[in-house]
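Before relying on records like the one below, remember that each one covers exactly one chain. Contacts with other chains, cofactors or solvent are not represented anywhere in the record.
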Amino acid sequence: MKMNTGLTIGILLIVILSTGFIFYKSNSHKQDQKVKKTKITENPYLGLRTQALNTTPEQLQIQISDERELFGIVMDWNIGKAIVTLTSFKTGDASLYMSTGQAFIGGFAHEEVSNAAKEFVMIGNKYISRAVKTEKLDPTQLKKVDFYFLTKSGIYYLEEDLSLIENGQSDLGELFNAGNQVITEYRLITDNK
C-alpha cells in the first residue's frame, strides 16, 4: 500500500506540477471528445473548490429522497507542496484541482473517470454515518486527508492522517483508495495525451 500511494503521489506531482494548463469541460458529453488545453492567468483553485463544496442536487439534475443521502464527495489531500482536491458526484462528474493552480475538469466525458467517481461516492455511503456535520471548509492541513460528504442536509466531514493511510493503519483506507482511483484514471488520460 505504501509503495502504491507513494508512486501515485510521485506520478501525480510530475504530471500535474510540470504542466501549466487546465483541461476543461465542453458542452458535449461525447466519450471521444478532445481535451483542450488552456493557459491560466490566475489561480482558480479556491473558487473551484468552493463551487464544488456548494454544489446541490438540483445543479446536478438529480433527485435525492433522503436528507443524508450522499450525492458527492470532496477529498482534500495535502501532499506538502500542494493540496490536491478531488470532487466526485453521483452523476459521474469528477474534477481534480491543485492549489498550485492546475485543474482537470470534465471527467464525466471519460468512462473510466466517471465510473471511478460513481464508485467513490458509492463507497462513501459506508462512511457517512461516522462523519460529523461541519461548517469547516478550509483546505486540509499538512499530511492530512479530509473527506467532505455532500448531502441535502448539509456537509459532513471526516479527517485522517496521511501516514495512517499510507501504512494501512486507517479504517478510511478503502475510501481513500476509491478517491485515489479517480485520480489514477485522470493520470491515465494525461499519460495518453
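DSSP finds six helices and nine strands in the chain.
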